[in-house]
Amino acid sequence: KQRATSEQAKKQEAMLPARASTTHDVVVVGGGPAGLAAAIRLKQLCKRANTDLSVCVLEKAPQIGRHTLSGCVLQPTALDELLPDWRSMQPPDSTLCTQDKFYMLLSRNTPAIRLPNPPTQHNRGNIIISLSSFVQWLGEVAESLGVQIFPGFGASEVLYDKGSVAGVATPDTGIAKDHTKKPEFRRGTEVRGKITLFAEGARGSLSRQLIRKFDLMRDAPSVQSYSIGLKELWRLPDATHRRGQVVHTIGWPGGNSTWAGSFEYHMHNNLLALGYVVGLDYANPNIDPYAQFQEWKRHRRVQKLLHGGECLQFGARVLTEGGYQAIPKLYFPGGALIGCSAGFVNVAKIKGAHTAMKSGMLAAEAAFAALQTGAAHGVELLSYDGAVRSSWITKELKEVRNMRPAFRKAGLLPFMAYSAADAYLLRGHAPFTLRSRQEDHTTTKPLWKCSAKEYSAPDNVTTFDKATSVARSGTSHEEDQPPHLVVADEKVPVEVNFKRYGGIDVKFCPAGVYEYQSVAGGGVRHVINAANCVHCKTCDVKDPTQNITWTMPQGQGGPAYTDM
User: Fold this and answer.
1) Where are the extended beta strands (E) located within 280-404?
2) How far is CA 211 from CA 80, 317, 331, in A?
């Protein structure tokens, strides 16, 4: 059946008009910190060598930064290396971190318990930024150096030539929901390159294909794991805003067995980046990460903080948490994985932008060296993999390698004891490495084995429903197109997700994309509201049978972040 379907697809492809094609020396897929750092470094190397390379960046958002989301406290290590004079280059507003606080929460109404800041949470010297604004600025820097940036062009297909990656293709547009071609139908574009760098971010759709095709995780001690990060941008009154203050909490309402915690970053212009992170290896299908975030805001300390404030924006995105043990082989014939496509987040620091940028810079240096030797096809950037593993990226990740798996194996309180010993006594040099071979979608228990979860109704003052938050994200998609959330077996959502796991997809999605509607005669049907999708990719990670796959939508749909 699969062979017949494949043959049918080939015949249909042959009947279509040919795609337009462009060719470049280096194609970068993704206009985030890693991709733009790579593009900038390539052009810097060209200038030093008095030569030139054609470098293009493809970004699925209609503008650079519109799909970019993070906390974000930036450790400027990589930025200082990439652009030593960045402070004089009119960067977007940023705030120097001046104070760190760390709390344990026990319940909604008990006082927050101030704890010593872990060594990894000392942020003085780091800067609080809007990552969406930051990458927009990086894009301007890249263009000034001669990089060609194509916003609104997402990559939906990897192109191959004799088994090597030869570039990517953008999706066809003008296809209706019933898969028929509308009058405005247009073929996508083939963007070919001697070297293609994939910087799609966490759970990149093409990066996943490459990891499987080239078996890039074969030698990794652990599988990749993920969390979902939920964020709101608030404007606070002068009385509660503390510019430069960084606050993190653990504990309630996450409980002992769910990896969860919050962040509060006091930015410029009375802005507050407020967020909550939940590990997607949770077992109880009744957990709703979005509702848990709203519940956390009901803590009396947070209520006092938000009093008189205004929520401006909302967003969500998965982040990689596998760390040192889950770094894949980084290269393959014709290209490489960079940034969160590979997974360089330092979980203990709650930071990944600096490591993503550094990986992009190292890949650029390896690509430039390879192209200077005349390489034109099937280049394997072996030197890039080696450079990453001997860089400060790997040093950072190795020192904190046991933090996340320690929680997974033991829960909150034992984790706190171990992390204190690791930070203050072992100093990251434990004589052992904890591993995990269980993917997040396999950790969920059946509904009948788990306790119910009670979440308060939103008050529409400091807590909100999903529909309100989706509206604040600016998300939109063309309605008349095939769903970009592809369900392989349409029976599985009802028979498995609903009956066995209590409608887990309704709960793990922060945007109300999935629902179950009653049908005449009894039973339910599965409904996908794809237009609500904020591109967080939680469903791609947590769906218990991996029956849902996130794919590139037509056009330029998705969120519209500005200061996130």
Assistant:
1) 310-320, 331-332, 335-337
2) 31, 20, 10
The one-letter amino acid at 44: Q
Cα 95 to Cα 90, 101, 235, 537: the distances in Å are 14, 16, 15, 30
60-85: per-residue pLDDT in tens?
999 999 999 999 999 999 999 999 99
What is the C-alpha separation between 260 and 404, in angstroms, rounded?
11
439: tokens are 């993917």
Q: How many CB atoms lie within 10 A of CB 213?
A: 13
Q: For residues 339 and 138, is the Cβ–Cβ distance under 8 A?
A: no
H-type alpha helices, 272-347: 289-296, 300-306
Using H for helix, E for strand and C for coil, what is the string for 205-244?
HHHHHHHHHCCCCCCCCCCCCEEEEEEEEEECCCCCCCCC
Q: Residue with structure tokens 């200082």?
A: 80
Structure tokens at 58: 């493809």
Beta carbons within 8 Å of 180's beta carbon, 6+ residues apart:
none
The answer to whether 226 touches 202, Cβ cutoff 8 Å, is yes
Between CA 211 and CA 337 the distance in angstroms is 9
Mean pLDDT of the chain: 95
Contact 563, 133 (CB under 8 A): yes
Biggest CA pair distance of the chain? 74
> How many Å apart are CA 482 and CA 302, to the nearest integer?
41
Nearest CA to 235 among 205, 271, 184? 271
- Rounded to whole angstroms, the Cα distance separating 523 from 283 reads 26
Task: Please answer whether residues 265 and 273 qualify as being in contact, where contact means their C-beta atoms are separated by less than 8 angstroms.
Answer: yes
Cα separations in angstroms, 336 against 211, 224, 379: 10, 17, 10
Residue 146, class by beta-carbon neighbours within 10 Å (0-12 exposed, 13-18 middle, 19+ buried)?
Answer: middle
Strand partners, 524: 518
Segment 149-196, tens digit of pLDDT: 999 999 999 999 999 999 999 999 999 999 999 999 999 999 999 999
Nearest to 339 by CA among 388, 383, 306: 388
Q: Of 535, 510, 532, which is closest to residue 66 (Cα–Cα)?
A: 535
C-alpha–C-alpha distance, residues 462 and 308, integer Å: 9
